[in-house]
Structure formats: C-alpha cells, structure tokens
Amino acid sequence: MESFNAGVSRHLWSPDKKWVLSKLRDIPGKxxxxxxxxLCFNKCVKLEHKEKTLIMPIMDETDYLELNRVDISCPxxxxxxxxxxxxxxxxITYMECP
Length: 98
Fold this sequence. Notes:
The protein is mainly beta.
C-alpha cells in the first residue's frame, strides 16, 4: 500500500520536540518517527493540484520549509502527477483529518 503523508514547516509545531515511532512502513527496513504534537493528532493537509485533490496526514516537520510549502511523500508526489523539473504548485489547506 502506498503511503501518502506530509511534512510541514517547523514554525507550525510546538517548540517541545517529542518524537515517537510511527506505524508507517513505506520504506522497507527503515523506521519512521512522528512528532508527538497536537499538529499530528488528526491533522491533515489538503493539496489541490490541477484537477486532483489529495488529503494526507501531517507526520513530520521540515526545518527549511516556509509556512506556505509542504514536503510530501514520493507516492503523493507521483499521484498528483508532479514532475521534478518544475515545482508542484498546489493550493494548501490545513484541516482535521476526515
């Protein structure tokens, strides 16, 4: 099963960094950790790109991201039909997970 998930700007997180082991197993032999933070509790990001809409859980922080950018998993990137030559411009909405 493909894993769609997103990392968001560190500016959205609580300054208290607590990480716990995730159940995500999209990369064989590699553990994933998520922040034990209110931002991870049932929070998702909705991306609208061209004619596609994808809602996925927020599972990570990324230090270099600005507030108006997200880092998405490779399966999500491919599903949205983005390419590596251009940026994947999308409308970003933060929301409770459905």
